[in-house]
Each structure stands twice: as C-alpha cells, then as structure tokens.
C-alpha cells in the first residue's frame, strides 16, 4: 500500500514538471512594415486588440504576434492601426 502511494506521489510530481504551454511561442514572430521575401507563404489576416481603452501599441502588437503564432506564422506585415491605437491589423506569413 505504501508503495502505491509513493508511486502516485512521484507520478504527480513528474507530471507537473513536464507541462508545456499549449500556445505557440510568439517570441519567434517578427513584425515589420516591409514586405516579406518572395518565398514566404501568406497565412491570412491577423489582428491585435487591447482589452483596455488605454491600451498601448506594444500591447496590441503582442496580441497580434500571438494570433500569428497560433496560425503558424513567423513574420507579420503591419497594415493598419486604429485611430486610438487599441487595435492593429496585419498579414501573417510563414517564412523559411
């Protein structure tokens, strides 16, 4: 019985140490206003939004980068910011 309890505790500990994020990493996404290389594949429109009316451009860019990463993109061309800066639109690309 003690062996079963010990095994259960050890299993739970190891399972907690090996958890990974279910979201792709946005840190590998480059944002630019420049067109991508010709060998990049367009993945579609992405948007970044702020949940606050006082959101910053950095905040909306980070949100857009996460949406691009979720689509498998590693490059985003910024197309337009909203007038108040609380949203941004771009085109996501997968580049080699």
Walk me through the structure.
- By secondary structure, this protein is of the alpha+beta class.
- The chain has one domain: Hypothetical protein apc22750. Chain B (Translation Initiation Factor IF3, 2-Layer Sandwich), CATH 3.30.110.70.
- It has two helices and four strands, in the order αββαββ.
- It has helices at residues 2-17, 57-70, and strands at 30-32, 41-49, 75-81, 87-94.
- The chain has a four-stranded mixed beta sheet with strand order 1-3-4-2.
- β3 and β4 (87-94) form a beta hairpin.
- It starts with a helix and ends with a strand.
Features:
96 residues; alpha+beta; Translation Initiation Factor IF3; 4-stranded mixed sheet; 2 helices; 28% strand
Q: Look up the CATH topology.
A: Translation Initiation Factor IF3
Shape: flat
Can you tell me the CATH class? Alpha Beta
Structural class: alpha+beta
Low-pLDDT runs of 5+ residues are: none
Q: Which range does the strand content fall in?
A: 25-35%
The overall pLDDT, averaged over residues, is 84
Q: Rg from C-alpha positions? A: 20 Å
Q: What sequence of helices (H) and strands (E) makes up the elements?
A: HEEHEE
Question: Domains counted in the coordinates: how many?
Answer: 1
Helix content: 25-40%
Biggest beta sheet attributes: 4 strands, mixed
According to DSSP, the number of beta strands is 4
Please list the strands of the largest sheet in the order they lie side by side: 1-3-4-2
The CATH superfamily title: Hypothetical protein apc22750. Chain B
Give me the number of helical elements: 2
How far apart are the termini? 55 Å
CATH architecture: 2-Layer Sandwich
């Amino acid at each position: 019985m003690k062996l079963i309890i010990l095994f259960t505790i050890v299993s739970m500990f190891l399972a907690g140490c090996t958890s990974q994020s279910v979201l792709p990493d946005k840190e590998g996404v480059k944002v630019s206003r420049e067109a991508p290389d010709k060998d990049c594949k367009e993945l579609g429109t992405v948007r970044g939004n702020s949940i606050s009316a006082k959101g910053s451009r950095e905040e909306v860019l980070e949100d857009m980068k996460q949406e691009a990463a979720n689509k498998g993109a590693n490059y985003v061309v910024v197309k337009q910011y909203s007038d108040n800066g609380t949203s941004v639109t771009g085109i996501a690309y997968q580049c080699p």
